[in-house]
Specification:
about 280 residues, alpha+beta, Ribosomal Protein S5, domain 2, Alpha-Beta Plaits, 2 domains, 7-stranded mixed beta sheet, 4-stranded antiparallel beta sheet
């Protein structure tokens, strides 16, 4: 048996550069991981070539998604004489811009690699991941990174986030990624120049970094969904909009707050009944 933690991904910056002929979009992103996670337990079973998923999340239990597809591929490609049962204790909200399914798939790829001593390299695992989802290659790692293309071009970097945490606020509202990108293709994406935040990374300047966080999908999601708009306004009105941005295509908002920020903690306590909300550490 082996256990892996599947840490949530947050986008600290997103630009949408354009749509490709295959339907995917080229992106400019800055991603990081936080200590909100699902727990993945993998056990060997006496059923050669079989991979099954058990979860407290009904979507993951239906045996027809990128998580089970990744598990089946790993078993049938590398150890077809083996079988596994995967139990996922799901905590990351679904359809929330936190790559919940992708981090689970990535953790399963890592876990099977360890369990059966396949000795796959990071690049080899990422090449497997991209077959099933554009977010999976980044989700294999637990470091901040610049991510480009559809998600396959990954450049990790060192940055001092130690004095900051992530306030996460999810309105328990599912947002369709496809719908958001379709609207963006029709009406345009709210892109800005990535150079300023890249310069902040190069200089390890956290204040400039916070000032230049951005998500080109945010305006689309806010205009499409009243609950998402209300969530954004609640955070902005109570805590200000510095370091506040949506992650992924929504519906979750994140705000970089100082570790000592008592107002952010008070926001969490006041709004726990209304939102899925807490303060998390960067990995």
């Amino acid at each position: 048996m082996i256990t892996e933690k599947a840490y949530a991904k947050v986008n600290l910056f997103i630009n949408v550069i354009g749509k490709r002929e295959d339907g995917y979009h080229n992106l400019e992103m800055i991603n990081a991981k936080i200590d909100l996670y699902d727990t993945i337990t993998i056990e060997e079973i006496d059923s050669p070539g079989l991979a099954i998923i058990k979860s407290n999340d009904l979507f993951l239990s239906n045996q027809n998604n990128l998580v089970i597809e990744s598990a089946r591929y790993m078993i049938q490609k590398f150890v077809p004489e083996k079988g596994i049962s995967v139990t996922i204790d799901k905590v990351i909200p679904f359809g929330a811009g936190l790559a919940g399914n992708s981090v689970d798939a990535a953790a399963i790829i890592r876990g099977i690699n360890k369990m059966f001593q396949l000795n796959l390299t990071l690049q080899e695992m990422q090449n497997i991941g991209i077959k099933f989802g554009a977010d999976i290659p980044y989700c294999i790692i637990d470091k901040p990174a610049f991510v480009e293309g559809i998600g396959e071009k990954i450049t990790t970097f060192e940055f001092d986030f130690s004095n900051y945490k992530i306030l996460l606020v999810n309105p328990r509202e599912y947002i369709s990624t496809e719908d958001i990108f379709t609207l963006g293709d029709r009406f345009g994406f709210d892109n800005i120049d990535i150079k300023k935040i890249k310069k902040a990374v190069q200089k390890n300047n956290i204040e400039d970094f916070v000032q230049n966080m951005h998500n080109a999908l945010q305006t689309i999601a806010i205009n499409k969904n009243k609950k998402v708009e209300q969530t954004y306004n609640d955070i902005k009105n109570e805590l200000g909009d510095k370091g506040l941005t949506m992650t992924g295509s929504g519906s979750t908002f994140i705000k970089m707050v100082k570790a000592s920020d008592v107002e952010a903690q008070a926001f969490v306590e006041r709004n726990k009944g209304k939102y899925f909300t807490n303060i998390y550490n960067f990995l």
